[in-house]
Amino acid sequence: MTAHALRGDLESTALYDLPGPRAQRRHFLYGIASTAVILGLLGWLLHLLFDTDQFTAAKWTPFEYKGIQELLLKGLWNTLKAFAYASVLSVVLGAVLATGRLSVHRPLRWLSTLCVEFFRAMPVLVMIFFIFVALKVQPLPALVAGLTLYNGSVLAEVFRTGINSVERGQREAAYALGMRKTQVMTHVLAPQAVRAMLPTIISQLVVALKDTSLGYLITYEEFLHAGKLIASNLDYDLPFIPVVMIISPIYIGMCMLLSWLATWVARRERHSPKTKAVDIGIDLDVAGPGAAPPGRI
Predict the structure, then answer these.
(1) 161 and 247 in contact (C-beta within 8 Å)?
(2) How far apart are the C-alpha atoms of 213 and 224, rounded to whole Å?
């Protein structure tokens, strides 16, 4: 056995023991049972759909009308527009709040912590309703503001955790070389924290995308609102089921696309030399008297 193969075998068994023949058979049976249960549930669901005549031509012909297609496309565009605004503003707000929480100035740190904890604890629907009703804001800005406050406060913790996950030696080495606080953050800490933060950031943006459906509660004409409007004007029984069968795969597809994007970007960043930790060799005689001491950013 070569050294490379031995190393790979040791890495594969460092956290758990390899299953034996009996364990492998047991896992195989568990897999068959789980697959049978899932197929049974899908079969039962299809039986209910066929039993209630959900696949008849009369229930799907209206979706061939140009007016209904345009309404769905308009709702999808409004959903993507609200998501784009909310995602960009959430990242910006999260970066600002994270910077405040990492500040050496105590009042700024306390104020940022108060904002993060308050908006994380507040239900996003309550914030959207308060901005829409109490502040009399239009539906789109109210929806974007509510999503931004909630997701921005969550991303602030993601950013703060990602920055703190970088080895302390990297920070101390940068300060010893005479770098300023902003330089340490932008050139040393942030690039190395990107790999750790990126999957969680994308996951939170998936949450923001799904939460755009709350816009129909404040009469914002997003994708779900368009589906509800179409279903309310159809004249057959259970009109919401065909609408849901059209809207749900599109929502799921957009969320899966974001997840795929997160995986692709994480893989790309993993192989990028800009995000790899750099071993900075330091000569203590190089650091001049004006070098900043290590500490908070």
Answers:
(1) no
(2) 6
- Could you tell me which residues come within 8 angstroms of residue 103 by beta carbon, excluding any fewer than 6 positions away? 109, 112, 296, 297
For 34-65, the pLDDT digits (tens) are 999 999 999 998 888 888 777 888 788 888 88
Identity of the amino acid at 200: T
Instruction: Give the integer Cα–Cα distance in Å for 90 and 98.
Output: 12
Q: What is the overall mean pLDDT for the chain? A: 81
CA–CA separation, 147 vs 208, rounded Å?
Answer: 7
List all residues 6 or more positions away from 225 whose beta carbon is below 8 Å from its beta carbon: 75, 215, 216, 219
3-state secondary structure 16-64: CCCCCHHHHHHHHHHHHHHHHHHHHHHHHHHHHHHHCCCCCHHHHHHHH
pLDDT tens-digit series, residues 138-155: 999 999 999 999 999 999
The token pair that represents 248 in the structure block: 């749900």
SS3 annotation, 51-116: HCCCCCHHHHHHHHCHHHHHHHHHHHHHHHHHHHHHHHHHHHHHHHHHHHHCCCCHHHHHHHHHHH
pLDDT above 80: residue 171? no
Q: How much is the pTM?
A: 0.74
